[in-house]
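Forum: Protein Structure Q&A
Topic: Joint prediction for protein chains with partners

I've read a bunch of threads here and the consensus seems to be that you should model interacting components together rather than docking separate models afterwards. I'd like to see that in practice. Below is the full input, 1419 residues plus whatever partners are listed. Could one of the regulars post the assembled result?
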Amino acid sequence: MIVCSASLMASWLAQDQAPNFTAAYHGGPSWIVQILWLIPAIPMLAAGLIALLKQSQRNLAAGLAIGSLGVSLLLAIRAFTHVLSVWGQGGVAREVVSFNWIELGATHLQLGWILDPLAAIMLVMVSFVGLLIFVYATGYMAHDENFTRFFCFLSLFAGAMLGVIIANSLLLLFMCWEIVGLTSYLLIGFWYQKPSAAAAAKKAFLTTRIGDIFFLLGIVWLFAQTGTMLFYNHGAGAMEPVALAALLSQPAALGLTAAGAIGLLIFAGAAGKSGQLPLHVWLPDAMEGPTPVSALIHAATMVAAGVYLIARVYPLMSAGATAGGTTVSLTVVAWIGALTALFGALVAVAQNDIKRILAYSTVSQLGYMMVGLATGGVAVGMFHLITHAFFKALLFLGAGSVIHGCHEEQDIRRMGGLGKIMPVTFLTYAVGMLALSGFPIFFSGFWSKDAIIGAAHAWPVSEGPFVLLLIGALLTAFYMTRQVGYVFFGSWRGPSHSHAHESPLVMTLPLSILAVFAIGLGVLGTPAWPWFTSFIESKRLLVDMHGFSEPGLVPLMGFAVVLVLLGLGAGWWLYMQKAVQRPATAPVHHHQQEHGDEPQHRPGDIVDVLESSAPIIWKWLANRLYFDELYAATVLRWYAALAWLSDWLDRRVWGGTVAAIAKGFRGLGWANKAIDSQWIDGTFDKGCEELVTGGGLLAWLQAGRTSRYLRVLALGVLVLAGLELVVGAMSGQVRP
Amino acid sequence: MIFGFSIAFLLTAALTVAGALAAALLKNLVHCALSLTVTFAGLALLYLQLDAQFAGFAQILVYIGAVAILVVFAILLTRGAGIAEYRGFSSSWLLGLSIAAATFALLGWAVIKSLPAETEASAAPAVTVQSIGAALMSSYVLPLEIVAVLLTVALIGAVIVAMPEPRTRKSGAESGGGQ
Amino acid sequence: MTPLAAFLIVAALVFAIGLAISLTRRNAILVLIGIELMLNAANLNLIAFWRFGPHSSGHGDGLTGMMFAIFSIAVAAAEAAVGLGLVITYHRHAKTTDLDAMTRMKG
Amino acid sequence: MSLQASFWNNLDQVFVLLQHWIAGYFPVGLQSAVGTILAVVGILATFPGIFALTTVLERKGLGRIQNRLGPNRVGPLGILQPVADGIKSLTKEDIVPLSADAAVHFLAPVVLVVAVFLGYAVLPVGRNMVLMNMDAGLLFFFAIGASTELSIFMAGWSSRNKYSLLGAMRAVAQMISYEVPLLLSSVVAVMITGSLSTVKIVEAQSGFTGIFPHWYVFTPWGFAGFVLFVIAALAETNRSPFDLPEGESELVAGYFTEYSGFKFALFFLGEYLGMFSIAGFAITLFLGGWGAPLSVLGFVPSWVWFFLKLLAAIAFFIWLRGTLPRLRQDQLMNFAWKFMLPMTLLNLLVAGAWRFLGDGWLRWVVCSAVLLAAYVLLGRVLMRHQNLGARSYRYAD
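Posted by a regular:
Agreed with the consensus. Here's the joint model:
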């Protein structure tokens, strides 16, 4: 019944091209796929145009950005319906368009784009959420004088992100990936006047670079092994059996196959982008950017790019997996994801900056997605990605609305009682919070997260991730409740002179829409009607209530629900039932909130309940388990040490030996003074010469002398040419 | 013919190399520039001996007609003209010289080793100016366009670079004329 | 007819001299002159190979080598214009064309 | 053919026949070389002769224009004046300034004269009367012309004299600036002919409709090209009104201030030979070369026509010199870059249109209209910014 209804809907949505389905299969790809490139191209074009605008042309800029993304959204929906209809006809909707970009003799680099369920649903999600956030941003940034620049960056980001999604070539994906990174940098540092923002931008850029280097290595390796960068190319792509078999047959170091090694490298890139454990440090600081940016980039879309990447290369990651078994790379992904999930949840408990809490919850949720991918396959992870995109965007926009309402106050200890003041925000925020913490049945987060937990439970390798995820779920519920309790309950603890207010409609409207989706999306992925899974895997869709009666599913669900309720309850008991009050004694000093620092106490700030009970742990959590400090202490320290060492070498070893020689000679000279005075002068001069030469030697490397560079250049070329010729002589092109 | 080299070739080659050497060794910059033009002319003659009329004349037109003049102007505008600059050679000239010598040795070795000393000269290719023009307009039209753009950009760039800032308008005025 | 090797040797010699100029002379203009010489040597090579090589190469017309030379002449002209312009500007700022003195990037 | 026709024919080819006849006395191996040498001798003999003639013509002509007699002592009506000048310049002391750069100072005039003479190699002075009929003749001429600038610079710089240097700078700047329109304006003829060979260009113009010749100057683009070419040629040869480089009232004698005696004469010679050659090319490109102006006059030998046209051109130059005032440097440059260049470029387009519009009256209308409109508009635009008014005398009256 559902099937035919789905197919009916499909054929209704795609009447005009019902004839050329067959074309889509047998002949060339259908028109929507042909013009798929427009989806990213249009926002990029808009970005270019906006860049040409004057600072004063705000409305035009916003109009361009929103309009272009709107067009992209329409196209995306069209593509989505196309895929739906193909699926409804029972086909595997995967159409690719590829073309040669550069031809280097025999080898040529190919670019191309792809339309399959994965890409289609991501397209719709990104352009839709993006559109809402654009609208929201017009309200949020209304008072910023760099309005136009902001929208230029936003559109550029949207275009690049859509490009990442439709890319069918690792190369194209990597290009867009880097543009995305660039825009993220630009937007985090949007208020570059704030040193903390500038620093955060730099941090984000560099940290993600670390991942991207590995990613690039992986790409190059893959290209070297398979000779193509296309994912799917009618059997010749890198994600298709032939290439994969070749990769599997290739052994690499440490008993890994080439496939596994490349998978790990690519995962490093993904980890950098979506803040997985070693490389997560940039994500919380990224909250220095304007809130819409945090919502769009660092919650909904960009950070999901990593997950999407893993989903894209999933055939590679899972290549060689025995039935029910797993691969090395997937195991790594699962463990790292699980650890990240727990870590994020833990740290989020002890944060006081409203956006930081959300940031850490994002980190943790991304961990969930990774685990989902690794243990349950593409569909599970992607489902959580989609739902999370909606409710996390909702939460961030809500937070933004709160901040906006509280006059740029971000510390939840100085809010409170806003539930009455800004009702819309409160309600929507509560929806988002419940969805995030996975409140049963009604909220999308429940289904998606539950699917992940179920998958982790069924994972043959180890129970570890499963346990970690459960604890994470508990904590998630807890810290979200804590936050809501702080922000919306109790009484206003902020400076008495500032009065919070509800945000304008352009901000609350997107909130409401997102809230609807945060609730509604859940139905797509219930075990009874696994629409999403079968859509992604383009299987036939069946509905059966027996989906629930799989062994151990319901108990598991129940257990998860219990945990969630436990978390909620604890939060309620600690933060709502006796509302948090400001200690009446301490006077209020309202000073400029400095962002991106450890949450430090200021007089007038209330002491958290947990803090008073378990200060040590609290301190650790509040300082994010000292990760930044760790890096500062290790990586940075090493660099510093290296620099210092070279400096020391310069001074001591070079100059020092020289000086020592000189001293020695000098001493000798003094000793021989009585005997012979010529010596002294001689050695003296000698010593001085030595010193001079030593100094000169050191200076030699440094001076910016063009002629010297020329010389070195020429020498290098000479050597290369010589090598070439010698090799030629060896191989006999040059007759020796 | 002397050891298989036509006298004309020997003369032009000697002229070319002599000019280059003079450009390398003379103290006075203008002398360097002038001997450089001798080299250019010699190269043009070599082109003519290679039946590349068009290239040869283009060489004269561009290098002697434009580049040499440009160099000379630059020398005059940078006051490098009259005074034979003292220490014309950089401190570590020996290294540079050895590098150059090594380069020559390498190239010479490659040429000698890789080519038969006596290449039978194939018949002179019948290349008329028409054929060159046709080729420029047909199969080389894209490079032609690109070079056109490049030249335009270079023209504008050179003018802008050499354009005097407002404060130094007086001193820069003639340099604008020079470009 | 003079053998190909002879032309190539002359070209190599000119190239080496140009390199020597740009490596040993201190005046920026002279360095540019050296670069021009090197370009010319390359052109000579191109023409020589065009003359001695097979006359149907690349696009079927036996012109590839000469075209290459002609284009490189054009490019060399642009290069000279811009380079000398730069030298003049630098001289206006720093009152020197001595490469060894051109160690500052601030104008 | 009839006797008379053959007579005229032989008269037309007389020099060619002479050359072959003389060369005939030499062994076969040398004949081509001898023929070349003879042709060179011919050139070396003819044009300096015309130079001698021109000096006296110019002085007398200017004299008439300025309402005086001019040279009239040496020989009848002062015809032999050039001989006297030649003897004088040969016998005069050759002074080289102490601080001058002797070598360059000596080389400069030589280079100039050699370059200028080379230019004649591709100049067809009559039917079958060209030294080298090379495929890229025009390009050769321009390449050689470009290299004369160098000699002028050498002269100005080596003299160590501020007037010389200023003159040289002016001259080089001016010549570079006007080389562009010169070249571009001659390209139209090349476009229509489809060849760079001077001989082909002349032959392309040798036809007649009715009695009127097919000279390029009688077409819109040809006329525009001719005018532009002549203007650029005046500037290229530093003739008045573009004679700033040697403006006596400003810089004593420009770049050859410091030259005297025979070197001075060489410069003089070089200047005038340059003028002749460029005039010769103007004739070749636009005035039908050695072709007869009317079909009925076709029997007259071709070289006669060429030299008649040359003399007419010289007379024209003298007339201009006597008439026009001297420009200012900035006017000179503006004129080159803001008027000449756009017009020449436009002329190229017009010639292309002419080529592709096919026969008929249409192309006449279109081409003339475009050129006229461009001329008028450009003139308006350029004139707007310089406020021309009644001249105001600051010190007089």
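Helices of chain B lie at 7-25, 29-49, 53-77, 93-114, 129-137, 141-162, 169-178.
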